[in-house]
Specification:
disordered N terminus; mainly alpha; about 160 residues; elongated; single chain
Length: about 160
């Protein structure tokens, strides 16, 4: 079965978790699945069938050291700060959603927090655009009120010294 939301399914069939993924991500996952099939075929009995999407070249589950080593190589190849860790991807995800006005409740759900308070506490600096939106709106409202009051004072009392 294809991974994307465009995949056809019977009415009784449940939605796939992949249905919520952006098309670009689904395309990359499909490509990865094809690569993994080729690896599995070339390794034969040496391949461990774990059923996982991301494994070592022998099909074994990845551990944290595998992920950090591969991530470091990718970061280096991309010319990014070599101090970056996989955790930065999660922080970047939260920042991008916040910068695009995604509500805090939605961000909390997407990062797996049971409460938006947890998301706010952990990502306070990265959530600034979402959290301050209300304050900025109030600033705009008060500025408009002050402008109107200033205009009314000038109209009532003439010139203001």
């Amino acid at each position: 079965m294809a991974l994307g939301a465009e995949a056809r399914r019977d009415e009784d069939e449940e939605e796939s978790p992949h249905d919520a993924l952006p098309k670009q991500v689904v395309d990359v996952l499909d490509e990865h699945a094809r690569w993994q099939q080729q690896e599995r075929a070339s390794r034969g009995m040496e391949w461990s069938r774990t059923g996982r999407a991301f494994t070592t070249r022998a099909g074994e589950p990845l551990d944290a050291a595998n992920v950090r080593r591969d991530f470091k190589a990718i970061v280096k190849k991309a010319g990014l700060n070599p101090e970056w860790t996989p955790r930065e991807l999660r922080h970047s995800f939260v920042s991008l959603l916040s910068d695009h006005g995604i509500p805090l409740e939605t961000i909390a759900l997407l990062v797996g927090h049971s409460s938006q308070a947890t998301t706010e506490a952990v990502y306070r600096k990265r959530l600034r655009p979402v959290i301050t939106k209300g304050a900025e709106a109030m600033d705009d409202i008060f500025a408009e009120d002050q402008e109107r009051e200033g205009t009314e004072v000038q109209e009532e009392g003439g010139a203001v010294a």
